[in-house]
Design brief:
alpha/beta; TIM Barrel; 8-stranded parallel β-barrel; about 45% helix; binds indole-3-glycerol phosphate; Indole-3-glycerol_P_synth_dom
Amino acid sequence: MSGLLAQMTQSSQTRLEQARAREPEKALWARACDMPPAPPLRLSPEGFDVIAECKLHSPSAGDLSANTSDVESRVTEYACGGACAVSVLTEPVRFGGQLEHLTRAAQVLAPHNVPVMRKDFLIDPYQVMEGRAAGAGGVLVIVRMLDKSRITALLDCACMLKMFVLLEAFDAADLEIAREVLALRRSHDEKILVGLNCRDLDKLTVELSRLSELAHSMPQGFAPVAESGVNTLDDVTKIVSLGYRVALIGTTLMKAPQPRELLGKLLSTGRQTAMGMATRRLRIAKGEVS
Ligand SMILES: O=P(O)(O)OC[C@@H](O)[C@@H](O)c1c[nH]c2ccccc12
């Protein structure tokens, strides 16, 4: 495991122990089950969506809070700009997050009918319950950090709480594990997206080429998500052409003084590309072009 993921596993473990000491799992489970349902994750029929991310700090970009006076207004901009979901970092050590940010984001986004996803380095179902109790409708699960039984335990917990999952891979080996885990879940009534994160966790650089190299290895039947380093309209055109259905975008949107406008442009660019591809497929099917 990379240095960053090892450090994040440690931070996650420490927070988990502290939280368990404050509230036993049974009480937390009851609280999570009592929450009103989160808005459902709905992907647009136009073929492209953005999960917009709220992260105040990142190990690669440093401080990202300059244009964000408060979490509520930033995530509201994202919802008004058309994000299908908002990802909220809750990791405090390297990403400037807190569980409280999730609670606040979920409260302001409920009337907009946009779900919030807990973005953290989760290692235990307890933390999925924490997410739901804070109002989240989804969670990130990072394949590289967990063995198969742990991944399954987190997916089972999310499924019981009717939360969607973004299952994140970094490379072909992770995708293979994801495929094996998912193959056993065909009968589950759940919503799972599979993400490919193209950030190199050791160098912290982005390798967009990984998105093209592994585009054909994404498990079938799950919306493929391009994660990290999607910054420009050209990047969006490229990933949609490769078959990605959703982009997870953080840094660029956090740096934007007007995220609503930027999101609108990213979405219309991606949707135009997707529509162009669909039209071409139709013409091929009809035998009009080869
Ligand atoms: O800021 P970017 O390059 O747009 O990337 C967003 C997202 O992919 C990134 O924040 C991320 C993906 N997986 C993670 C896991 C933990 C923390 C952060 C992440």
